[in-house]
Amino acid sequence: MHTEISPLRIFGQMLAAEWLKIVRRPMAHLLLGIFLFLATLRETLWFLVVALQEGLFSGGEITFGLLSPTAIEQIKLQLSLPGVFGAMFGEINGTGGILAVILAAGLFGSDFNWGTLRVLLTRMPNRTIYLLAKVTALQLALLAAMAITLLLGTGLALIFGGLLGLPQRLGVIDLLLVPVGMLRALLVLLPYTLIACVGAIVGRSVIAGVSTGLIFLVFDVSAGSLNTISAIDPFIRSLVNLLLQPNINRLIIENGRMFGLDQSVLTSALDTALLPPQWQALIVIIVYSMIFGYSAYRTLNRQDIGGAS
Predict the structure, then answer these.
(1) In angstroms, rounded to a whole number, what is the distance separating the alpha carbons of residues 90 and 97?
(2) How many CB atoms lie within 10 A of CB 159?
């Protein structure tokens, strides 16, 4: 007697298979290693700035006026707990966004490049479940990478904060806010990873996904620079704030604020007076993500499956 397998069970099997692909893929390990190295380098440079400013290496005899006292205090917060969490989230949504695009494109495009998609869909023809399993596995992988990054940040804060004699304040509330920050950072990455998925599906290759994701990222960041123009007129500001980047910046700022940071001190582009409110940012990012997700779904379900074009 034939027993039909439930869609939920098929999804679970596909999700487990996709997760296994990611954790065993050398590219995923390489991208994570690059990101952790860059995050460590950034924190090290901030440490050196503070150390030189305060004459740590000369016993206070030789000091350098590299930045304003306000900026130095802000950097000190990023080098200690819990401010380092905000700094790490900023890194995740900065450099991490580029690497997440590459990972997303590789996850989807490789099935076309290697010719495995036809085999997969022959055994399990439900393309919607295939797409959901891929996207879900990608989000879980990004969450795992975030957890590793936060652990790295904690270690760096203990080392650099100890060398600089900075106070470490880590309470229960800070720990409870970490999952909130992770989900917010994941939402920031979502539209960029989804547009990379669309590119990989349309172009049927990894390179098409990477190109689409990075071109969109560059265009979006460039469009976000129109924020300076939006200061002139409220109507122009309302139009600019319908773009993705200003809303992304709002959530990045909110993640920093949760842990005591004010990133506008170091970056004028993050001036909260020119950015949309948080509720609007959430809505706009979700709408963009839904558009890109539907585009991936529609394209995958309508195209003939073959190898790379």
Answers:
(1) 10
(2) 14
The predicted model scores a pTM of: 0.92
pLDDT tens for residues 200-231? Answer: 999 999 999 999 999 998 888 777 666 666 55
Radius of gyration, alpha carbons of the chain = 22
- Enumerate residues 6+ apart whose C-beta is below 8 A from 7: 126, 129
Q: Tokens at residue 23, please? A: 């954790």
Evaluate whether 184 touches 254 at the Cβ level (below 8 Å): yes
- Inter-residue contact 220 to 246 (CB < 8 Å): no
Per-domain residue ranges for the chain? 7-301
Q: Is 255 helix (H, G, I), strand (E, B) or coil?
A: helix
Residue 188: both structure tokens together:
């920031």
Place of tokens 């609007």: 280
Give one DSSP letter per residue of 149-198, joined into a string.
HHHHHHHHHHHHHHHHT------HHHHHHHHHHHHHHHHHHHHHHHHHHH
**What is the tens place of the pLDDT at every residue in 125-184?**
688 999 999 999 999 999 999 999 999 999 999 999 999 999 999 999 999 999 999 999
Distances (CA, A) of 199 to 91, 195, 231, 303: 25, 6, 34, 13
